[in-house]
Amino acid sequence: MPPPSKFSKEQETWLSAALKEWQAELKSGVDNEELKKWKSDKMTDFIASFRDEITESGEAAGNLRKRLDAKFRTAKFKLKGTEVAPLPSTPWSVFPKPQQSTARELFRDAHYEEINAETTRRREDAGEDSNLHAARFQQVLKEHWDRLNEDEKAHWETQCKERAREQELSGKSQVYRNQKDFVPIISRCLGTLIGNASHQLGDAVFHLMYAFRDEGGNVVHQSVSVISKECTERYSAMPNYERDIAESWASYCKQVLKREVDDTSSGEHIKLDVDGCPLLPVYDVESTPAVEIRAILKAFLEAMWKFTQGGSSTSDQGETSLPWTEIFNLPTKFVRDRILVTTTTLQDPATAPLPTLITLASHLRHILDGATGDDRIVFRAKEAIEGWQPQGIVQPESVLDDPPTNPSIGDQDGPASGDLDTGGAQDLPPPTDEGAGVGTDDNDSAVDAANGEDEGQLGGSDVPQKGRRKPGRARKGSSASKIATKKSKHPLTDTGDNVEDGPSSTPISPKRMRKRKQPPADPEEAGEAPLSNVQAPSKRRKRGLPEQEDMSTNSAAKPKINVKKITLLVKPKKGARIGKTVE
Predict the structure, then answer these.
(1) Which residue range(s) make up the domain with 47?
(2) Is 124 part of any domain?
(3) Compositional bias (Basic residues) at which positions (predicted)?
(4) Are residues 180 and 285 in the same domain?
(5) 528 in Cβ contact with 435 (< 8 Å)
(6) How confident is the model at residue 149 (pLDDT cuts 50, 70, 90)?
């Protein structure tokens, strides 16, 4: 209730009419010198109209004018309206919402000592007490802020935005702290609603079931019971509560609470399915910038590594625990076979070259879209990686260590004798058996005799036949085709008769050799001469041409001979094979 007026009823009636005129003048929106003169004239008229009453009261003229001025000022404020705009509606929360700092507040905090010292000095110089310190502080702060130029103010605006970003990134940590404080706070809030006061609900009972995912990604589902003092039993103590209520509630929470991993280093949010498997975010390889693709793949692969290894994707030192070097060198140890393809190399997206990054992004997008079950997983499980053993490289068995039981010389599918291949020679492990001889064009008779003219003899025919494979090429799938070959490092350049042993050609496959007749273990036991001593007609003699003159005795007149083929003759003992012609 307002205090009683010091003006009489007649004075209040006169002032009421004058104030209405005053408000009418103020509605024009102009408060200039004319209005001030109008108000002063009205106050003079009031004093003249009630001079006798004023004189009898003994009130000073200056004090009366102050009271009249207050009347006019109050009427002016009432003209602006007494309604207050309602505050914006915000959801009710038991946790205080942090207020974002302004650029001026950051400037104040940074220069607080300086501004506070200046405020104290000014207040003491003016003889003012400490009750006016807060007001004087704001005045000094305003003066310091207004003295800043545009660049300096922009600096503090930037600092304000960075502070807001840091608060947003730290929101997750605050969320987990709120989870720990939730039970005592909500219990206290619900307890204040029980009672018969004007702000309470009367005799009430509350049973709150809640669930959330904690910092480790686990579903926490609990309940809170708030009851009055008269209630002796909580709802959770009712029979079959766990079976009928708690179990179904826990199952429901696991289905609706989606997991989410927040990688603050890359700014990407990786969502996870019901099983906790990371889901590859949506991106377009053609339109998405490479920087964003790197951040997306980095966050996704780290979340996938955490899911498969059952631990944190960040080590204690803050560095990623993904062994990218080992993954690059041994991809089959860490990456599932479905992910590995010959056109993709799994590298760290943060440092991978741009072509490799684009290829990896396209491949993951293609292979993981719509994948279900284990097809969604990129890395192997932790147990599989720890128990991984490198698959041994199957080395072909030596032809001398495990020979065929019935080797035959003269392969009908082998190269024809006389088919001169111009390709490079192939190096094979030289035989260790004794009795090996080498022939050249000068002693073709020994070579032809060793090789024979038909398939049943040593070597095989030199005449190309239809349907036969080229020399040195083994049948597909045979053991011979698995033996690695390479070009000879020491080509034969000796043009004399005594030529060193050259490399043998590709051996005959065991499958074909088993179809042939086993030669005698020792040619001498079979009544034959050693192969190296057999003198057979040369090719020139078979063609009806005269024999070439032996020029080995005259080295000065010996012409340069181009060696076209070398035949390695091996004594046919057990475990030995007869070499073929090598160009």
Answers:
(1) 9-79
(2) yes
(3) 466-476
(4) no
(5) no
(6) very high
